[in-house]
């Protein structure tokens, strides 16, 4: 993709509306019990999105649950999101299902995202990066990504990969 396309994208895609979904059963259970909980990764995502001038439509917490992940995806597309970021639920435990749910729904995958995310993670954390599962793709013209729940992973994924290219990606996704 040429720089001309990127410049054109910056002129054409003026606003980016972002929905942030934190996937964490423990935080969700605290939320429904009315208990306080820390959501540093979700707050970091909001902060970075606002720094880029994007409009944050919502930040929600849901459990590691296939049905709820799917419902949130469809609801946020309906809401008019341009980008939906799922934070967490990407690990290797049996309850971590975010990647599986999304990879079965996405219209197109952006494989380079996960590959480069792991490469950059490897530079920071070494061999443990092989356990980092991150995916991105398009669903109904909306950019959808699932990233690990650590604050460092959120910063890396958003600042180094997704946010610098989101307008360019949306430009191509919407092109007929």
How big is the Rg? 15 Å
Helical segment count: 7
Classified by CATH, the class is Alpha Beta
The CATH homologous superfamily name equals MoaB/Mog-like domain
Major beta sheet, strand line-up: 2-1-3-6-5-4
Characterize the overall form.
globular
Strand content is: 15-25%
Describe the structure.
There is one protein chain. The chain is built from seven helices and six strands. It has 176 residues and is α/β, with parallel strands linked by helices. The protein has one domain: 3-Layer(aba) Sandwich (Molybdenum Cofactor Biosythetic Enzyme, Chain A). A hairpin with a 2-residue loop joins strand 5 (135-139) and strand 6 (142-147). Helix 6 packs antiparallel against helix 7 (151-174). The chain starts with a helix and ends with a helix.
Summarize the structure.
Helices cover 51% and strands 19% of the residues.
Task: Sum up the structure in keywords.
single chain; 176 residues; alpha/beta; Molybdenum Cofactor Biosythetic Enzyme, Chain A; 7 helices
Write the layout of secondary structure elements.
Blueprint: H1 3-12, E1 17-23, H2 25-32, H3 40-51, E2 55-62, H4 66-79, E3 83-87, H5 98-103, E4 108-109, H6 111-125, E5 135-139, E6 142-147, H7 151-174
Parallel strand pairs: 1-2, 1-3, 3-6
Antiparallel strand pairs: 4-5, 5-6
Helix pairs in contact: 1-7, 3-7, 6-7
